[in-house]
């Protein structure tokens, strides 16, 4: 029986494995960046604030690697506070606003909301950037609290779902293979993804 002793240099295989891993990261990151961009494009017509809340997170240490696209559109919880009520007649008076729980604006836009009526309070306060006029030409009743303006309403109408997130997902799914392939090719060729 003859024995042969073989010695293999695996350094090139290890180098190739590292290149493939880096290329995989480049492909995933390129698709996630495109998803972030598309999500912003879908959210921007709804609200500038919603579009500004789009972000991407990466975890390249996991197997499989992950990228998450999120939309942050939460109004923070507010404590009870003093405010000024400006009535449409022109009269003003001080009022105390109840604490307000956090409000996930991004979720409400995506999934919709039924009509809302106050259960305990006298009226709903809807945040606005400016106050409109009544049919008689007088300013609407509004509340000013901490530099923010709120119009006074007895109810808020239902909000139909606007699945901006699903539209963005469909668009990215159609482009993902091409975006990832281009990034992987550039990475393996030694270029920046």
Question: What's this model, at a glance?
Answer:
The longest helix has 33 residues, at 11-43. The chain has helices at 11-43, 48-52, 105-111, 164-188; strands at residues 54-59, 66-71, 74-75, 81-86, 92-97, 103-104, 124-128, 142-145, 148-153.
| Residues in helices, as a percent range | 25-40%
Biggest beta sheet attributes: 5 strands, antiparallel
Distance between the termini: 53 Å
Tell me the strand order in the biggest sheet: 5-4-8-9-7
Fraction of residues in β-strands = 15-25%
How many structural domains?
A: 2
How do the helices and strands follow one another from N- to C-terminus? HHEEEEEEHEEEH
Query: What is the radius of gyration?
Result: 27 Å
Q: Mean of residue pLDDT?
A: 85
* Class derived from helix and strand content: alpha+beta
User: Helix tally?
Assistant: 4
What is the number of E strands? 9
Morphology = elongated
Q: Give the uncertain stretches in residue-range form.
A: none
How would you describe the overall organization of this protein?
There is one protein chain. This protein is α+β, with helices and mostly antiparallel strands. It folds into two domains: 11-73 and 163-188, no CATH class; 74-153, no CATH class. 36% of the residues lie in helices and 22% in strands. The chain contains four helices and nine strands, in the order H-H-E-E-E-E-E-E-H-E-E-E-H. The protein has helices at 11-43, 48-52, 105-111, 164-188; strands at residues 54-59, 66-71, 74-75, 81-86, 92-97, 103-104, 124-128, 142-145, 148-153. A five-stranded antiparallel sheet has the order 5-4-8-9-7, with no helix packed on it. Strands 1-2 form a two-stranded antiparallel ribbon. A hairpin with a 5-residue loop joins strand 4 and strand 5. The longest helix is centred in the first third of the chain and has 33 residues, at 11-43. The protein is elongated. The two termini are 53 Å apart. The model has no long low-confidence stretch (mean pLDDT 85).
